[in-house]
Amino acid sequence: MESKKIISQNDNKKMISIPNNSKVSCGSKKNHNLKTVLKLENVWKTYDLGEIKVSAVKGINIEVNEGEFVAVTGASGSGKSTTLNLMGALDSPTSGKIFLDGMDITDLNESKLARVRGKKIGFVFQSFNLHPSLTVYENIALAMKIHEFSDLDIEKKVNELIKLVKLEHRLDHLPRQLSGGERQRVAIARALSTDPAIILADEPTGNLDSKTGEAIMQLFVDLNKQGKTIILVTHEPDIAEYGKRQVVIFDGQVKK
User: Fold this and answer.
1) CATH 3.20.20.80 is the classification of domain 66-92+108-254
2) Residue 29: is its pLDDT beyond 90?
3) pTM of the prediction?
């Protein structure tokens, strides 16, 4: 496979080699043999600022199929963050429809939306968002406890995920005792704990050096090879290259 050298935007400016397999596309990629796990249909998000109204997202259409690895990119002010919130069921559209794993979630109230979000989407954030007083084991188990998994299922799943992210030796450590890369591995394990339809990663390498960031991105690649659906939101071109398809947000719309 052809590779190309890209300068990382992190502080130490190391060179990393990334497979040249990413394609820029419009929001929808239709394959009738695959299940659609996320669909934004003519979605608008408009904010009422009193005398004026500002549309951060303007009629976007995005479709993600099961097993895809999609990178969503865009400059600051492009509407990328608003798109992330809509895809992650963290916000509701002003108009249009959003379907998550076959369910119309457009008009769900916050309580129901939070329940669906917690089960269907595994979030990975730039700042890790680990509970500081909980151990690695407890952080991974937290979402399952909230969603009332049995103790037996929790123990089995956590042990599987700990092995997957190679942190068996850190099981009883607190987040402050971990490196940045180890914290992000815990966050990824936590995101996988409820077997979500989608892993939504928001700038997952933003707080990591280039070598650690490359290792984290390789973990996402491996998860995708195992069939996990990954949506990566990033402003870094070199990180976006890991996606098999890129969706570019520009001026609140999907760039053609």
Assistant:
1) no
2) no
3) 0.84
